[in-house]
């Protein structure tokens, strides 16, 4: 299974944008890029996913590099509730494989 | 719509005792996953079901762990006997179809402490 590399931790100020990077240099053509986050004492929750084009939803935006070897999760205005561990995961496009979680990036949001 | 339900939420047992965790996935979700999450780590897949069939149990320690998914709905994960190193959060997740493109929906987890 393809692996991802994320910074261990990041800090942000409340109401400012946050850019969470992820490197996935061994991504294959059919791998989807998924982002999940895990709030303290909760199970992970889905944030966003994409294949090639940039994606937007009510929670965040996903910017995917043209060569797909990296991506960035963008939180447009961080709130205290966004403090969590963010996981960048590659999921195979077919029925093969599973989502392999790394350690993720722990995001702290300062008021 | 109800989410993934897990019980119990917390369990404290002594080593060598058996323990079981129960999961009720989202209605209509054919794929069910059990994960284990150690402190400070991401979740690790233990087993994945497609309906009632275990299609990936390569990471399940089969000497002490067992799982079943009767009628392709609810699932139970059992540990017998438990060891100190089994202390972790056990997460259940479900999705409408096999992984890769589909969103997985996670339950709140069962926090197990083995003394």
Notes on the protein architecture:
The complex is a heterodimer of chains A (about 110) and B (about 120). In chain A, the strands form two sheets. In chain A, strands 1-9-8-3-4 form a five-stranded mixed sheet, with no helix packed on it. Chain A has a four-stranded antiparallel sheet with strand order 2-7-6-5, with no helix packed on it. In chain A, strand 6 and strand 7 (about 70-75) form a beta hairpin. Chain A has about 110 residues and is mostly beta strands. Chain A is globular, with a radius of gyration of 13 Å. Chain A has no helices and nine strands. Chain B has about 120 residues and is an all-beta fold. Chain B contains no helices and eleven strands. In chain B, the strands form two sheets. In chain B, strands 2, 4, 5, 6, 9, 10 and 11 form a seven-stranded mixed sheet that branches. Chain B has a four-stranded antiparallel sheet with strand order 1-3-8-7, with no helix packed on it. In chain B, a hairpin with a 6-residue loop joins strand 4 and strand 5. Chain B is globular. The mean pLDDT of chain B is about 95. The interface between A and B is medium-sized, with 26 and 23 residues.
Looking at the structure, what is the overall shape of chain A?
A: globular
Task: Please give the oligomerization state of what you see.
Answer: heterodimer
Total beta-strand segments of chain A: 9
- SSE arrangement of chain B, N to C: EEEEEEEEEEE
Number of helices of chain A: 0
Number of strands of chain B: 11
The fraction of residues in strands of chain A falls at over 45%
Distance between the termini of chain A: 38 Å
SS strand fraction of chain B:
over 45%
Low-pLDDT runs of 5+ residues of chain A are none
**Approximate shape of chain B:** globular
Distance between the termini of chain B: 37 Å
